[in-house]
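Incident review: delayed structure delivery

Summary: a single-chain prediction request sat in the queue longer than the usual turnaround. Root cause was a stuck worker, restarted by the on-call engineer. No data loss occurred. The affected request and its eventual output are reproduced below so the record is complete for anyone auditing the incident later.

Affected input:
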Amino acid sequence: MTRIAGMAGNRGRNLLNIADRRPGGAEFAVILTNAEDAPVLEAAAERGIPTEVVPMDDDMSRREHEEAVLEALSEYDFDLVCLDGYMRILSDTFLEEAPTTLNVHPALLPSFPGMDAWGDALEAGVSVTGCTVHVVTDATDEDGDVIESEVDAGPIVTQEPIPVYEGDDEESLKERVLYEGEFRAYPRAVKWFAEGVANVDLEAGEVSVDADVASTDADDHDGLPARRLISDDRADTLRYGENPHQDAAVYADYTADEASVVHADQLNEGAKALSYNNYNDADGALNLIKEFDEPAAAVIKHTNPAGCATADSLAEAYEKALSTDPMSAFGGIVALNRECNVATAEQIIDSFKEVVVAPGYTDDALEVLFEKDNLRVLDVGELGERTERFTEKPLVGGRLVQERDLQSISADDLEVVTEREPTDEELETMVFAWQTLKHVKSNGILFADGTETVGIGMGQVSRVDAVRLAAMKADEHAEGKDAEGAVMASDAFFPFPDGIEEAAEAGIEAVVQPGGSVNDEDVIEAADEHGMAMAFTGQRSFRHD
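Output delivered after worker restart:
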């Protein structure tokens, strides 16, 4: 366990933050100050941390005071020294006797060293400042006098950028740098030292950190970065969030090259702006139709597909997608992967839709779509390649980051496990269903016929219930099609044969699923008993957000 000697001049808020968080399991052996009335003393005592006070007498030289500090600390075992507002420049008298000593400075060194980093940043008019955790090095001459150019000049361990906003004053900037910068960077640095991954080379003036790299245990992945620094600009303030009592805004990443609803042009400028939910649903719809090279259309409701299809023409694809569940498509989002033509536009306005997203529109199509005052028409431009690597989900106190699910299968990837082989048409449908199912919330089941959906069961806590829901949708909501003879896709394995039994009752004749259950043999046996064909993908396709 790494033991820390903290040295503060006043409140010691960084030290207390480190004490509360215990990064890397580090604990304080002692907190020392040179001011008897420093608030950090009481706060440390409340946490059970021993304290020491070594006043700076008027007749004490710098070296004499440092010797007194070392004497006070000699009763404690510690591996690291952390300074926090310790308003004394340390010389080699202390530094050569103590272990590695860290300090946090409220600027991005080498910019704005010295006592008034916040004021200097504001005076310079910079748009970004931040903080720096660095190794403390000797900044004094032989007589103990300070060499100004050597202050805050030690090797940098880590930094954290912080924006400077219009209207900031020194106090507001100081608080933001502390809470959003120092409270992140200092514990990170302590954690690295506690875990033994920080290597200090004073001769070279460098600190290397073994853990501060993209790393992974698997050879077939590029790994995830040790840190993510995200800087997005607010593109617009929204009317409200998911519900009227929630404030919301949309932020834009202007480095993104991929077609995006955030960067789309809203062509009917007189229509109301997109809402939080519109953005979320439109993004889901656009991501779905990017899966297909053939003309494709999808209708999304609450980020789930109400229907999806590919066909020889865009109008046909939209008709097939809509007919999966026209009732649920009411008030939904339409996404197309081709330029919207007038035949497709005329179908879209036949029922209420919130948004249509496409990589362009003919003039005739726009004239038709603009007949609906509140139908938002988004032009995302050329779809191009899918270039964004990560997706992320904010959590309270952090965020989950993962590689985007860009898996794609072909018929050759499928492992047939039943006595009956799938027909060529069923194999084609399996591939279509699997690519669509990636965009259905788990537990997800999808029924498809040809390259169109006929029933979707999404977001169920039981897989067999998802099958029942897909069957109900196909029987009661689909128009001009049903589950008889269809293919069923499941985003994860069937834990029991009951899902297959339900599917057989609905008329399903072929199944595609990941496989991998301890009960695979029982599930395959159930499929054989019903004359079904079944193929394994060998990979799961959960979507939980």
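Verification: DSSP finds 15 helices and 25 strands in the chain.
Action items: add queue-age alerting; document worker restart procedure.
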